[in-house]
Amino acid sequence: MSADSVNADGFARESLAVLDRIKGSARGEVRRAAELIADCVRADGVIQAFGTGHSQAMVLELAGRAGGLVPTNRLTIADLVLYGGEDPAVLDDPLLERKSGVARRIYDLAAPRPEDLFVIISNSGVNNVIVEMALHAKEQGHRLLAITSVAHTRAVPAAHPSGKKLADLADVVLDNAAPPGDALLELPDGGAVCALSTLTGVLLIQMAVADATSLLLTSGHRPPVYVSANVPGGFESNLKLEKHYAGRIRRTAS
């Protein structure tokens, strides 16, 4: 790629081309992901979404947002402090997500039920806490939906002692089509700029939610969907829906 292509128009052109390709190539897997989501909602389960680093942006896209499903819960490393009583200084460790036992602690604090679906998001799919959470979720009998870059995960070695990667453990894998390292525009002297995975991850998530909602409607289930708290009556309507999942979903100030 030439230096002339490293600009706003170049990113828009290249990223939109990937989004257009995903719209068709991921259709079958999106449908399978939607079936997992719809099955979870029908079974009175909660969608437990987990990611670290910038993957938390996609977790926020799924859990607790206007236009999204109510039975969704956001899991984060910060739960160790917010709900587990750990000293906030523990979050100063940049290698915390690589330490053994962290994921199980986060899982235990959430106290998921067997009918809960896990959605784990990681571009590389190899960080220890990501794989540990996936392993533990499967050991506990949960269905697992992964959103990851297949190209990236194939390009790097497994880091977890099990030798597993996130994609190896999932019931359904949604490939965000991001290149290894995530950045889309190659620089003339090496390296790249402008990450892609958030754009593609959001597309995949919203496609899956849309299909899941369709499946729920077709089977006669009213989808429990958030409306914006910034429209009249929205906050009160959301509170009524959330009561059904009291103690199972966390909604904190953001």
Automatic annotation (TrEMBL):
Span of the signal peptide: none
UniProt domain SIS: residue ranges: 37-215
Matching InterPro entries: RpiR-like_SIS, SIS_dom, SIS_dom_sf, SIS_GmhA/DiaA_subfam
Record SUPFAM superfamilies: SIS domain
The organism's place on the tree of life at top rank: Bacteria
Identification of the protein by name: SIS domain-containing protein
Native organism taxonomy: Bacteria, Bacillati, Actinomycetota, Actinomycetes, Kitasatosporales
